[in-house]
Amino acid sequence: MGSPVAVIEAKRAKCEGQVSSFPPHQSLDRDTKRREDDELVERTRRGEMEAFEALYRRHSSAIFGLALRMLQNRADAEDMLQEIFLQAYDRLPSFEGRSAFGTWLYRLSVNRCLDHLRSRGAKEKIRTEPLPPELPGRVSTVGHRGLDLDRAIGELPPSSRAAFLLHHVAGFDHKEVGEMLGIAVGTSKSLVHRARTRLKEALAR
Amino acid sequence: MKDEHPEIERLNDYLDQELDSKDRRQVESHLGRCEECRSTLDELSAIVRAASELPPIAPPEQIWESIAASLIERKSFSKSGRPWGSAFFPALAAALVLGVSLWLVLPAVEKPAPTDQAALADMVTEELRVAEAHYDKAIVGLEQIIAQNDGVLPQGVASVLNQNLDLIENAIGESRTAIATEPQSAAAQGSLLQALRSKVSLLQNTILLINEVRKGQGANALDLIDEMRKPTDPSNPI
Q1: Which of the pair, A22 or B146, is modelled with greater confidence?
Q2: Do A87 and A71 reside in the same domain of the chain?
Q3: How many Cβ contacts (< 8 angstroms) between chains A and B?
Q4: What residues of chain B, 145 to 164, have a C-beta less than 8 Å from chain A?
Q5: What is the CATH number of the domain that holds A177?
Q6: Closest CA to B205 of B107, B66, B89, B111
Q7: What share of residues in chain B are helix, strand, coil (percent, to 5)?
């Protein structure tokens, strides 16, 4: 172990490295991607199915990852992905381009997932059946750490889960997360911090 | 002086670089002396790093096929239509209107001039060709998904579905024969589009049924089976 100052400097460098390394999906080519998306949106509005398919190909994996991690059930996430893209298609006329298409799509998606969880929660309360400890079609990602983290994310309360996924996995800043979830910036930070603390506890078990 | 551990919320703020310089120095000073808090910070850092490395997850291919089939179905046959739609879909809707109902209405309205009529007929024929191509593409995709799930449905259900498909195939064949004889027959064109639509709908329902059976949702599956019996109704004009 080095001197306390050296240790601190190392920690700081590490933290700064992490802070500057995310968001991962909003790097150099963000503007280019946005321009390409805008063009595809415009072509979709003109009725080109191929353009909408291209939008689907560009965003479906990110949205499916979000849905799967939010809902923790593969069949539900597949249904959700389909509903999200059909709804996105229906709502394209009202997309004004003030935010990037990807941001707009994330907002739609995370709110659909939260609605679904609320509705599922209500149904489960009515049925008063306990959830099985291992849901079928559980999230599976590469590597044990990913798998453990995915499982732990599934144990977070829905709003914390949403904020954590949007901020740390999708790479949106707290202002964007706040706008997507209809909450204040401070609330987004608080939800993300709470999520990290709970994840730490869950992963330590 | 007793060196109190900072609350975890404060460590989170430190991690996010949200402390002012005085608070940051205090936390750093503590971290330099406290193994436990360093360990906590390490764990929080590791979670942030691992989360940023969680990969996107590719969805199964059949989801796009279902979306595309739904869009074709809805856009082509929606009663309300879509004001912002393409040239293709309104034209397709026009073709349908012509095919299914215009021949009923035309005797009561003034006929267009011969040249307009010919141009309209050409347009409808062209749009019919485009619509057929879209339907055929959707059907191929849906059939592939069903083939990949062969054996999921109970034998009796699969047999009923096949009977319905045979009926629709016959209707498609008859419509195509009629179009070959009279290429600009509105009735034949409308009949073909409706039969293709029925096939897409039946294949979509079959996939939904496969999903419900896989999920073990018996009640939903029964509802779907009821829905899918409808094409066998002789009063249903396929």
Answers
A1: B146
A2: yes
A3: 138
A4: none
A5: 1.10.10.10
A6: B66
A7: 75, 0, 25
Give the start-to-end residue ranges of the domains of chain B: 8-53, 62-232
Does residue A97 sit within a domain?
yes
C-alpha dist (Å) from residue B99 to A66, B71, B171, B224: 44, 21, 15, 29
Contact B32 A7 (CB under 8 A): yes
Q: Percentage of chain A with pLDDT > 90?
A: 62
Q: Closest-CA residue in chain B for A170?
A: B52
The total of structural domains in chain A comes to 2
A118 with A169, same domain?
Answer: no
The span from the CA of A55 to the CA of A41, in Å, is 8
Top-confidence residue, B207 or A86: A86
Q: How far apart are CA A182 and CA B149, in angstroms?
A: 41
Residues A109 and A147 in one domain: no
The interface pTM score, or ipTM, of the predicted complex is 0.77
Is the pTM here over 0.90, yes or no?
A: no
Q: What is the pLDDT of residues B162-190, one digit of tens each?
A: 878 888 888 888 888 888 887 777 777 77
Specify whether the CB–CB gap between B33 and A4 falls below 8 A. Answer: yes
Please indicate whether residue A46 or residue A146 has the higher confidence score (pLDDT).
A46
Closest residue by Cα to residue A110 from A155, A65, A74, A144? A65
The boundaries of the domain holding residue A151 are: 140-205
Residues of A in contact with B92 (CB under 8 A): none
